[in-house]
Amino acid sequence: MTILCVRFQLPPTDEAALPELLGLLEEFTPVVEALPPDGALADLRGAERYFGRTAVELASVIRVRALARYGVDCVIGAGPGPMLARMALRDARPGVTCAVSPDAAAEFLAGKPVGALPGVGSATARTLCAYGLDTLGRVAGAPPATLQRLLGARAGRELHEKANGVDRGRVVPNAVSRSLATERPFDRDELDPGRHRRALLSAAEEIGARLRAVDKVCRVLTLTVRYADRSATTRTRTLPEPTAHTPALTRAAYGMYEALGLQRARVRAVVLRAEALGPAEEASHQLTFDPVDERVRRIEEVADRARARFGPRAVIPGALAA
């Protein structure tokens, strides 16, 4: 068990603390992969030898330091590879690390639904369930040739290996991008999709205005929907071109929200995050020759000047989308 998957329980107003928390992990190992907005993978293979402690013991130290330094608790899963560490994280709880050993991997996976395996999307899950392969235990026991006929040679072989606990993934070190985030909480758990969309519109307008205020554009937009049971769903979309244009950000946010297919979901808050920021002067913009788009961009400039002079309340929310 050399890989940790850590999810920091960051307050919605403090998601910018992730880079500092990644620095905490890097005190133990340089092999850290950021999983925005609130997680990371850490390969402790060298750290186990250096510190003379197991990955589970080091996880306890990480948890204590995160609490002592930043007041942030964390949930940690441990496994022999990234896939198993991610899946162990789902069964973990604050204060207790869920660890999956190589010998127990197949048993750990056997009773889980096939859709719980990272990389298995809804379409693949439906195909497998249609043939009675609805759990990872049944997938593990199926002949590899059967899976290859259903999913293709490579996908079938990889799925069979993963269902049997063979985890060939690795942690790829990266750096978390600078980002801007804003949250729209509801006064009560909200069921109305119309209010969800209005909150997204307001969040996209704020993100766009903040980006333009610092002459930045973003290439990636992330939506996090927090539910009444304290669970959350996160979706990320790479934009067609780097932008700080409010309508483009709003379209992307709406697209991610609609793709979730929420039906009477009790939503507590929505969080929108702009990532992969870059200088606006270096970004290219595809000309559309659309007079409406050009008019909206001119209105944005006027609205930004009004905000700079009179404050954020100088512009009515939703006015730019009208």
In short:
The protein contains twelve helices and nine strands. With 322 residues, it is of the alpha+beta class.
What does this structure look like?
- With 322 residues, the chain is of the alpha+beta class.
- The N and C termini lie far apart (54 Å).
- Helix 8 (144-151) packs across helix 9 (153-163) and helix 10 packs antiparallel against helix 11.
- The mean pLDDT is 85.
- The strands form two sheets. A five-stranded mixed beta sheet has the order 2-3-1-4-5. A four-stranded antiparallel beta sheet has the order 6-9-7-8, covered by helices on one side.
- The protein is built from twelve helices and nine strands.
- Strand 4, helix 4 (82-91) and strand 5 form a beta-alpha-beta unit.
- The chain is globular and about 65 Å long.
- Helix content is 43%, strand content 22%.
- The longest helix has 21 residues, at 193-213.
Total count of helical runs of at least 4 residues: 12
3D shape: globular
Strand count: 9
Radius of gyration: 22 Å
The percent range for strand residues is 15-25%
- How far from one another are the termini? 54 Å
Class by helix and strand content?
alpha+beta
Strands of the largest sheet, in order across it?
Answer: 2-3-1-4-5
What's the story with the biggest beta sheet? 5 strands, mixed
Topology order in helix (H) and strand (E) letters: EHEEHHEHEHHHHHEHEEHEH
Summarize the amount of helix as a percent range: 40-55%
Uncertain parts: none
Q: Kindly state the mean pLDDT as a whole number?
A: 85
